[in-house]
Amino acid sequence: MAEFILIVFVLTYVGMALGRVPGLKIDRTGIALMAVVALLAAGAVGGRELGRFIDMPTLLLLFALMIVSAQFAAAGFYDACAQRITAAEGSPAVLLAVTVAVAGALSTVLANDIVVYAMTPVLCAGVRARGLDPRPFLAGLAGASNAGSAITVIGNPQNILIGQVSGLDFWTFFIACGVPGVFALIAVFGAVWLVWRPALRKAAPPTGLFAKVYPNRWQTGKGAIATVALLTLFATPLPREIGALVIAACLLASRRLASRAMIGAVDWHLLLLFACLFSVTGALATTEYGSGAIAWLGARDLLPNSLAVMAPLALVGSNTIGNVPAVMLLLSLWPDPPTGALYGLALLTTLAGNLFLVGSLANLIVAERAQQAGVSWGFRDHARAGVPMTVLSMAIAVIWLGVMEWMPWQ
């Protein structure tokens, strides 16, 4: 039965790399779900056993943070941010810089996937109304959402997973990853501006082009208070997921925003993907193949305890199977990783996600939402600026982690 589990595991991660099953309309979440069904149907694992593999605190924290972000979306806050960017005075370069700054800042404390989901269509409409090509702004939005999310332990799903499983402190994580995250935002702007300069031609003035979008002040204020309360609770001994759930429950108790709509805004596909991958990797860890892989890597000094191994591993893993599956795979097989290496894992897998379109879920959301808005945004479009911004930001991050002795060079 161990051989069957290994086959299911390998096929699952091949599916993560391909992103779909050829000939079928099934995505990564569907592939992972089919793998769990196969394990159950074959009797390789039982239902109770699968429950032990799933890290519920991580899923609960993800859910709660998505509710907080949904509060801002329901208030029209993200729409207003995108509209204010495109209606701002200034050159196209200034509009790009504001796009990067706003998307990066929002993604540090709110779920970056929801940020780009809400902002992409409004941004596309706004820049087209100014006579500009939306593609450089989509590159800035996607790149900044990833770079900004690298700054905190709650900025993106893989950081949340690493922080929960390893018990990383919120503010220590911020100290370790904040500086390279800010420089990564600068790298995003610089790469997009250099690569897309011909498309950043003179724009039409904003006057008269837009009807101003005003967010609901009361609902936005509730979201802001909830965010401050959330960060405050993170500084207390209360488990992170419990504090986040308390805040989420308070937001759901609303007279104007239906709880059904708020809960419906949660990315249930992502939560299901997490649960299924927890199950598949947990099943492998119970076999001799899991411990054997660790022994083989350790004997050859290939465990990602150093920057020499971590950086290329993060780059390859994030852009083949995706940064979330890559992190889940590493954490399931990597025994007692050093704390500094965990900061490196979070930072480098997040920044590596900017390389190609498939590197992060936020990139794919931007592409999908842009297509719905009538803008073609494909693999080549993303890679034009994605490659230089990733190379530069990862180089800065590696230097920072090494010089500050968060991780050894070798």
What this model shows, in words?
The mean pLDDT is 87. Helix 1 packs antiparallel against helix 2 (28-41), helix 2 crosses helix 14 and helix 8 packs parallel to helix 20 (379-403). This protein has one domain (57-403). It is mainly alpha-helical. It has helices at 2-18, 28-41, 47-53, 56-74, 77-86, 92-109, 112-129, 135-149, 157-166, 170-195, 217-234, 240-252, 259-264, 268-285, 288-299, 307-318, 323-333, 339-352, 361-372, 379-403.
Question: Which structural category fits the helices and strands?
Answer: mainly alpha
Radius of gyration: 21 Å
Total strand count, please?
0
Approximately how much helix is present in the residues?
over 70%
Q: Give the topology string: H per helix, E per strand.
A: HHHHHHHHHHHHHHHHHHHH
Give average pLDDT, whole number: 87
Biggest β-sheet strands, sense, barrel: none
Uncertain residue segments: none
Which band does the percent of strand residues land in?
Answer: under 5%
Shape: globular
Number of helices, counting only DSSP H or I runs of 4 residues or more: 20
Structurally, how many domains make up the residues? 1
Write the topology of this structure.
Layout: H1 2-18, H2 28-41, H3 47-53, H4 56-74, H5 77-86, H6 92-109, H7 112-129, H8 135-149, H9 157-166, H10 170-195, H11 217-234, H12 240-252, H13 259-264, H14 268-285, H15 288-299, H16 307-318, H17 323-333, H18 339-352, H19 361-372, H20 379-403
Helix pairs in contact: 1-2, 1-14, 2-14, 3-14, 4-9, 4-11, 4-12, 5-6, 5-7, 6-7, 6-8, 6-10, 7-8, 7-19, 8-10, 8-19, 8-20, 9-17, 9-18, 10-18, 10-20, 11-12, 14-17, 16-18, 17-18, 18-20
